[in-house]
Design goal:
Layout lengths: L7 H18 L9 E5 L4 E3 L11 E4 L10 E3 L2 E4 L8 E6 L5 E10 L6 E5 L5 E7 L9 E8 L4 H6 L5 E3 L1 E2 L6 E5 L6 E10 L2 E10 H4 L6 E8 L2 E10 L12 E9 L6 E5 L3 E4 L8 E9 L13 E3 L5 H20 L15 H54 L4
Parallel strand pairs: 1-7
Antiparallel strand pairs: 2-5, 3-6, 4-5, 6-7, 8-9, 9-13, 10-11, 10-14, 12-13, 14-15, 16-17, 17-20, 18-19, 18-21, 21-22
Length: about 400
């Protein structure tokens, strides 16, 4: 017998598959009156609640009779094949007389992906983890966050049959983060971050060692001050971050970086103290200073750099006084003898220290020249003396030989 509706057989197959997918799509806890969820790319079926069996119904989208391409009505249900994000919207079914029977909001999206997770401990008693979704699902999403301690001792296993664990507490004011309080610095933990939406769930397991993820907050209260009568020095002081507990067996060490504002390269100094004196600053130049912290035993990572603080070393008092004296004398001269024309004599802008340096350089140069001349003279004298000796030796030998020859036999 031929079906009165064209393609009814194909529609029935689609309807069966759609009903199966719909039963899986609406997971527990996501049921909401008047809302249906579906997965992009699959076939979705919308049921007309309130319609009598066998009675004809009409379907509309956003109040209009136009429906997505390929949709079909089967036994009062609307079948939407191969849905896309554009298929989502508000659908309504009506009786034969046009009366409204049911309204439904269709939301379409994707299954959750495995979330990206990273963890950090700002102290040795707690650690926090943050995550982001790896897939844009376009659907409401929530996260289940739990942890358990690894490598339990025999006593701990007897006391805690399910292991030492619990929820990683989420803070509504900081979405995408959770915190484990009262953790142990020398222990390891396994974290489970599960992403859930109306279509399903996906999770990430992460093994955490406290020593590896420790990263203090930046030091606080950074102060940089010039030192009087010390034109190349700056005094720098700071405090422990307030999040780091004050315990004698968990200390921090620090890294100080500084540079003149007009330069790009940093100078770096490491210290265990809460203050440091920069001894090679540039006189009269503004400097920028930052400090970071790390566990004293080198566990984990350096903190972020603190906020920049700027300061300028004092100027050299002698140079400052000389400059002020020169300026005052010049102003006095201009006030007493105002010039009406340009002075033809050249202005001597040389510095007394410059002259002294030039004279010292010339003296050193003259000394080296004199020493070189003296060395050359001594070498020439030694060479001449040696040559004279060499000429004398054969002559004496001939005299001796002649003397022996005239002796009586």
């Amino acid at each position: 017998m031929r079906s009165p509706i064209p393609g009814l057989g194909r529609v029935m197959v689609l309807l069966t598959a759609a009903l199966a997918s719909a039963s899986l799509a609406v997971s527990e806890g996501w049921e909401e009156e008047g809302v249906q969820y579906g997965q992009v790319g699959t076939d979705v079926t919308l049921s007309c609640t309130g319609a009598r069996d066998g009675s004809p119904v009409q379907w509309r989208r956003a109040g209009a009779a136009a429906l997505p391409e390929g949709s079909a009505i089967c036994d009062g249900a609307l079948v939407l094949p191969h849905t896309s994000l554009a298929t989502a919207g508000t659908y309504s079914c009506h009786g034969e007389d046009g009366s409204l029977l049911h309204t439904m909001s269709l939301q379409l999206g994707h299954l959750p992906g495995v979330p990206f997770v990273s963890c950090r401990a700002s102290d040795y008693e707690n650690f926090s983890c943050s995550w982001t979704s790896s897939v844009e699902t376009f659907l409401p999403t929530r996260y289940i966050t739990t942890y358990r301690k690894k490598s339990l001792s025999g006593e701990e296993k007897r006391r805690n049959k399910n292991g030492h664990g619990g929820p990683c507490l989420q803070n509504p004011s900081r979405p995408g983060t959770c915190t484990v309080h009262g953790s142990e610095f020398w222990s390891s933990y396994r974290l489970n971050i599960t992403e859930v939406n109306p279509l399903g769930s996906s999770y990430r397991l992460l093994d955490i060692t406290m020593q590896a993820i420790i990263k203090p907050d930046p030091p606080e209260g950074l102060v940089v001050e010039p030192i009087p009568l010390a034109p190349r020095r700056l005094h720098v002081s700071w405090k422990y971050p307030s999040s780091w507990p004050k315990e004698p067996h968990f200390q921090l060490r620090f890294r100080l970086q500084y540079r003149p504002v007009i330069h790009r390269s940093w100078s770096v100094v490491e210290t265990v103290n809460l203050s440091e004196v920069i001894t090679d600053a540039f006189t009269g130049l503004e400097h920028v200073v930052q400090v970071s912290a790390k566990d004293f035993l080198d566990a984990g990572n350096w903190s972020e750099w603190s906020a920049e603080v700027r300061a300028t070393p004092v100027r050299d008092p002698a140079t400052t006084m000389r400059d002020e004296t020169t300026t005052f004398a010049a102003l006095e001269s201009l006030a007493e003898e105002p010039s009406q024309a340009a002075n033809p004599e050249p202005i001597n802008r040389s510095d007394p220290l410059e002259k002294t340096a030039v004279l010292v350089s010339l003296g050193i140069f003259a000394f080296f020249v004199l020493a070189a001349v003296l060395v050359i003279t001594v070498l020439i004298w030694l060479r001449v003396r040696k040559h004279v000796k060499d000429e004398t030796k054969p002559h004496n030998f001939l005299v001796a030989a002649t003397h022996l020859k005239v002796l009586p036999s």
